[in-house]
Amino acid sequence: MRYVKMLSVIVIMLAACSQRDFDDRPVITTSILPQKFIVERIAGEQFRINVLVPPGANHETYEPTPVQMQDVAKSLIYFRIGFLDFERTILQDISRGSDNLLVIDTAEGMDMLAAEIVDHGDHVHLYGVDPHIWLSPPAVRVQADNITGALIEADPGNRDYYLDNYSRFVAELDHLHESFTEKFSDVKRRTFLIFHPALGYFARDYNLIQISIEEEGKNPSAANMKRIVDLARKEDLRDVLIQMEFERESARAVARELGGEVVEINPLAENWLETMKDIAGKLFTILNK
Question: What CATH number matches the domain at 186-287, 3.40.50.1980, 3.40.640.10, 3.20.20.120, 3.40.50.1000?
Fold first, then answer.
């Protein structure tokens, strides 16, 4: 009986491998899982979609493997955020290794935010570019425009199919944006604490203010921790949002000092629509405590 079970497992594995081998659809590569969701809503099942950053990995520090870089070069389209570290370093010149690869910055035409704002009192310094463009419906709408244009360029024969899918997806985005606008129009407070500043675009689009605990991509110094705690007390803030892939101790320390809780969100989950609803719900609860 044991051998029969083992044989069954082998047959299933071979069947799965066979299905992958015979999937001759052209390949699209995306940097992160939420992009896959967005691309699939427009592309349907016309392509196989490859994702570079695996579940649970930190997109801020991730480095694609040599095999992944080869997979990118073999793709028909590479949809990138455009501002993740590995996109600007390791994969910066990836198109040079391919004659057919179409590289698309999905942030093209977007009003970008600075990654860090340092206020010196009499002047302000802006550093870098905030890459978290998938965490706000209006920002995703811009990405959807860029994705649709690239799909039509790569596969003009299915233009109407992509445009129909795009129209349905945009209707979903507009509805989500309207519901969030109404949801956050009358909250008790407009400022929230977060470990890693991932919700800058969300905060901008819904008139909120995020205070980041992280300092230049690192755990905060003792002096900065004190500054954050003092500011949080002034604003009557207690809870801290944190992404599952980041270290939690600094967030816990701040939450303990304020008598609050650490609230986990997962901005890199594949189901973008449910992720946004989850983040909005948790943030709404925090803002109304």
Answer: 3.40.50.1980
CA dist., res. 72 & res. 70, Å (int): 5
CA 168 to each of CA 10, 123, 177: distance values in angstroms, whole numbers, following the listed order? 41, 45, 14
pLDDT, mean of residues 23-39? 94
User: Rounded to two decimals, what is the model's pTM?
Assistant: 0.86
Q: What's the residue count for the chain?
A: 289
Query: 115-145 burial string, b = 16+ CB within 10 Å, else e?
Result: bbeeeeeeeeeeeebbbbbbbbbbbbbbbbb
Predicted local confidence at residue 116, as pLDDT:
61
pLDDT digits (tens, 9 = 90+) for 220-276: 788 888 999 999 999 999 999 999 877 778 889 899 999 999 999 999 999 999 999
Question: Which of 154, 230, 138 has its CA nearest to residue 193?
Answer: 230
Q: Which CATH superfamily is domain 24-179 in?
A: Nitrogenase molybdenum iron protein domain (3.40.50.1980)
